[in-house]
Amino acid sequence: MNIIDELSWRGLINQQSDEEGLRELVDSKDISLYCGMDPTGDSMHIGHLLPFMTLERFGKFGHHPYIVIGGATGSIGDPSGKKAERPMQTMDQVNHNVEALSAQANKIFSGFTMVNNYDWTEPIGILDFLRDYGKLFNVNTMLNKEIISSRLEVGISFTEFTYQILQSLDFLTLYRKHNVQLQVGGGDQWGNLTAGLDLIHKAEGQDAKVYALTIPLLLKADGTKFGKTAGGAVWLDPKKTSPYEFYQFWFNQDDKDVINLLKKFTFLTKEQIEDLAESVKTAPEKRLAQKTLAEEVTKFVHGEEALKTAEKITDVLFSGEIQELTTEEVAEAFHGVPSAEISADPINLVDLLIATNVDKSKRQAREDIQNGAIRINGERLTDTTMEINPKDSFDGKYIVIRRGKKKYFLATVK
Questions:
Q1: Which SUPFAM superfamilies is this protein grouped with (predicted)?
Q2: Is the same domain home to 93 and 145?
């Protein structure tokens, strides 16, 4: 099986500029290819995983992936998929994001070459830009690209209009300097990718063997867009989305979606995934496919130790043995749950429930305590006169409160 067949059975091909030509090329030699990423923030999210994991798959077949960090393109804004102009970032913001994304990508992805398009774009003067590159772009053709035409009704600035030229210049530069012959991108980038092909053919001749491949937009079985949660994006930065939260995101995927996600987000073999598909049919209650998905993606992004911590937290929360967690694990496990600050002084249990908004009234708090609905740091307490000393648990930093079977609250000690 070659890389194109591999991508096909995983459902990772949306559009190709020349399917037969690309297949012949990757069969005949190892190629260089790239995908770009603009520094619109200081962390990748799971939407970035698919294209870069696709590059990783090419790498496993012996090809040479490049990541282009858009220090130049990110400073003007990509109009793709947007109904209005992006807010312009300062160059300090762009540079900060470039550094953060480069470090993150280098940590996650192996064997990639990282380049910044600011390095070859910044030295180009305005007259050279217009004469050497602008002259090769037909405005009518650019207007017909979906990424531009979708914005014409509300308007688009000349700055964002020229984004297509800058991204095309990336492909031309990489082709000339590193013999990069394939650009990979999301389905919404097709117009930009084909503009790059057109520029290379005009500048280097129609015989230049360059190709474009896009990955389909990932939808869940119910037709909604994959990758968003009630809390927003699922980030690859552990400070924004903890490894435990990351693990839980994958573990909680629906039976209807999990096999599709295993194909796209793991490097498991076809046989392994088929076995997991069978387990979904015969023993869905075991959630073996979801567990495997969560393990594989968490390990790939965050590493073995973070996976072990995420699994430990999962097991502890299931068993209710909260005291087995370290202070750091408590912070990770309960990141995002309802929380409130309390002083370091001992506090009556009823007053603690009121201070942390577990209950709205002292009467309700007493009832919950007497009914056995309240656990403090994993221990069920039924005495309404009990005093809780924050210094007795988790280095004096946290108190974990559970009401009922699943509702957690966190008291953070000032």
A1: Alpha-L RNA-binding motif (SSF55174), Nucleotidylyl transferase (SSF52374)
A2: yes
Q: Are 241 and 235 in contact (CB under 8 A)?
A: yes
Whether pTM > 0.85 for this model: the answer is yes
The number of domains in the chain is 3
Taking a C-beta distance cutoff of 8 angstroms, is the pair 42, 94 a contact? no
Examine the residue annotation and report whether 167 is marked as an active-site residue of this protein: yes
**Does the annotation mark 335 as catalytic?**
no
Q: Is 96 noted as a catalytic residue in this protein?
A: no
188 is catalytic: yes
Active site residue 202: no
Q: Indicate if 140 and 253 belong to the same structural domain.
A: no
**Which pLDDT does position 35 carry in this prediction?**
97
* Domain co-membership, 307 together with 390: no
Length of the chain: 414
CATH of the domain at 93: 3.40.50.620
CATH number, domain containing residue 315: 1.10.240.10
Q: Is there a single domain that holds both residue 313 and residue 344?
A: no
Asked if residue 161 and residue 99 are part of one domain, the reply reads yes
C-beta neighbour count of 158 within 10 angstroms: 6
29: containing domain: 3-215
Residue 211 marked as a ligand binder: no
Q: Binding residue per annotation — 228?
A: yes
Asked, for residue 161, whether it belongs to a domain, the answer is: yes
Residue ranges in the chain modelled with pLDDT below 50: none
Q: pLDDT value at position 248?
A: 94
| 108: nearest Cα among 263, 300, 241 | 300
Residue 208: name the closest of 216, 217, 199 by CA.
Answer: 199
User: Are residues 315 and 207 part of one domain?
Assistant: no
25-70 per-position pLDDT tens digit: 999 999 999 999 999 999 999 989 999 999 999 999 999 999 999 9
Instruction: Look at residue 81 in the predicted model and tell me its pLDDT.
Output: 59
**In sequence order, which residues have a C-beta less than 8 Å from that of residue 404 and are 6 or more positions away?**
373
Pairing of strands 232-233, 228-229: antiparallel
Of 60, 135, 176, 228, the catalytic one is 228
**CB distance 147 to 194 below 8 Å:** no
